[in-house]
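Internal ticket #5521
Category: modeling
Description: The requester needs a full-assembly model to guide mutagenesis choices. All entity lines are attached below as received. Residue total reported by intake: 891.
Assigned to: D.W.
Attached entities:
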Amino acid sequence: MPDSFHLDAVPIRLERCGKTFAGGARALEPLDLTIRGGETIVFLGPSGCGKTTTLRIIAGLESPDPGGRVLFGEEDVTALPIERRNVGMVFQSYALFPNMTVAENVAYGLKVRKLPRPERARRVEEMLDLMHLGEFAGRRIDQLSGGQRQRVALARALVVRPRVLLLDEPLTALDAKLRDSLRLEIDRLLRGLGITAVYVTHDQGEAMALGDRIVVMAKGRVAQVGTPREIYYQPADGFVADFIGTMNRLGGLARGGMLSIGVASLPWSGPDGAVELLVRPEDLALASEADGHFGGTVAAAVFLGDRTRLVVEPADGPALTVDTLGRSELGRGDRVWLRVDPARVLAVP
Amino acid sequence: MLLALLVLLPVLRLLWEAGDATVLARVLDSPATWRTATNSIAIAAGATLAAAMIGGPFALLVGLTDLRARTAMTFALILPLMIPPQIVAMAWTHLAGSGSPILKPLGLAPPVGTANPVQSAAGMVLVMGIEHAPLVFLALRAALRAIPGDVLEAARASGAGPWRAVRGVVLPLCLPGLVAGLAMAFVAALGNFGVPALLGIPAGIPMLPTLIYRRLAGFGPSALPEVAVLAALIGIVACLGIATQTILQAHIASRLPGGARPLAPLPLGRARMAVEGIAWGVLALMVAAPLMALLATSLVSVYGLPIGFGTLTLAHYREVLALDQVGRAFANSVLLSGSAAGLLALLAVPLAHAMALGGGAGRIARAVGVLVELPHAVPGVVLGIGCILLFLKPLPGLGVSLYGTLWIILAAYLVRFLPLALRPVQAACAALDPTVEEAARALGAGPLRRLVTVVAPLVAPAAAAGGLLVFLTAFNELTVSILLWSQGRETLGVVVYALEEGGSPTLGAALGVIAILVVLAAMLAAGALGRRLPPGVVPWRG
């Protein structure tokens, strides 16, 4: 990627940014968050969790409730409308101008900035090449595929060298295959440009793949902020654990430094009493009857290609999801024994 | 807000004038007032019933069944609404009169010397019924469209046969639509000027709009206080109808979920051919026959002679086009309707765009959108008298009076036809993806630039369609201009009326045919644009 594409990495700070809509609905509880310069941060959560509201507050499409502040670097931009924040924005619906060609779409922001025509043409061409759109410059928008449209939208947002790139569910409207390839392309672009990026999605796969850090949100609150690994392996609460990936819940009883699950006892450092344990499907393993921790019956076996996902019903307690090798021949009704890796078990307070 | 005030000024000025107690008492005490008002209401009610009997069955056929050529049928049915009333009335007098070029060869024409049968109360009921049947048709069809298809399917799944399901489920659901259409037809009949002028005046049946016209024409501006009261009277009765319609339409919109799959057409089976035959037969009688009579009258060498190769001539067209006042009227009408169409299409874009906004600005704009409907909804005489009252005295600051100039007609057109231009653009703005404009904002574009570079190009087809509808309506308009015209400032509608009244039926017919051709051309242009517009913008397109 040429040097001219390297963009300033501006940090963003949100201070007590809440949002109450007319009518009193609280879309966002007051939020404090610092996004580092050049970082890609992903807001992840179910619909209605406040992630899009947060993005729109950063963009300047919504203003935070009184008392909230948005800072780009040292500059307080709270009072600036989006037109004057110099942000790049990419929407789920692409939001391209259907009355303009690909090149005219990309040139729009440069025209607004009154760049001289030769300079404008040069930058548009450069950007179209970077996005592999050179041959489509003169096309009308309705002659493009969904993936091409979203690349035009990215080019249009980036060509003005924004201080921050904001992406609102940019891949949601695309089919699965395109989504994967465009996700890789966005990843390459964000790393190459070094731009501060805020990405909103409800898809945890996208969040894991793209985010330097993920902000998991629920009901207008931040549930957890952390790297993808932290979010996955050390979920802050039951909501995050359930929302990210698949999680098994096991009931255990701790007493005197030992924890009993099923027929097994494991060394345990926590306080005594009933404990709810969380285990990922890949951290449960099939075992022989001799070293298994508890047994159960296979209720369903779903072949996923690279692995087979088993749903095992123990004698008591809720059903467990277990990932095994794809070539496993186990099926409904088979008796199995499972082992827990104690190092990978999480206890939720 | 200022805009709403401006468009409401003529109506407000009229109410103020009509509030003068002594004149009010004198007019309300006069038996002529009450006789005329009773005539108006009774004939309008009769015409509404006729409109329901024509528009209702057609709406059900087009909206519910698998009849073929439904767009063509709709176009034919709506045609009488698009053609100005005075030309429709003229066509009917030629069809039913003793010199009828169609009935005479069949031996069905009334004997020479007897009164023309359509120049009567029953004739007015029939002609206005046909003219306003499209209003009932469109309202009922819109109500049918709003009914989700699964409602009918659910009724049929419960064991009801198709016709029983229609009777039990669909008809009750579209009843508010029917009543709204009736209210519209009633208000239209109450304000109609062309039909009472050509059919009522010769028969000695005064109606409120013609009474106002004759008083004003006979006594000049000195009659203004009196006619203001009469106009206010029509306005008040019309407002009752408008209120009914508004309430019912809000009801329809709120009760049914939008965006659902439409009703599947019901197969008519073997009856289809017969039903189609009857429907087209009725249309031929109602629409084609009078228009053919008009055409024949305009082509026959001497009025009253049967049409044939020996009597066919284009002389009337040559003669009428050579008339001074016709040339002037064409120029005036093109200028007036063209500038009204252009200005209103331009004005509609920012207004409709503001109406689609959220927040306080959007709420104010939507309130303005409701208020500007009023001058269009009330009968034209109300607006016409209001404009005279408003512009008779010299304009403050300028020292010139608009009265007696073309400007007063243009002002009235702008006020009256704004909703026609606004509605399609409003529909288009509401259908715009709001993120497109947000994307332009993110790129730094301010409000004006966004309006010009992003919003306007996207809603341009709708604005053009709205402008065409304005042009179509204003080009032949009579009700407002008959009150506002002056020597040398005639509109086409006024000249057609004057020729017919002045005893030149063949010339009037020729000019009427030319006017219809212009209307058809504009309708076809709007139809071609309609392919690129959301459904419902162009009335006869599905």
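Resolution: model delivered.
Comment from assignee: Chain A has a mean pLDDT of 88.
Ticket closed.
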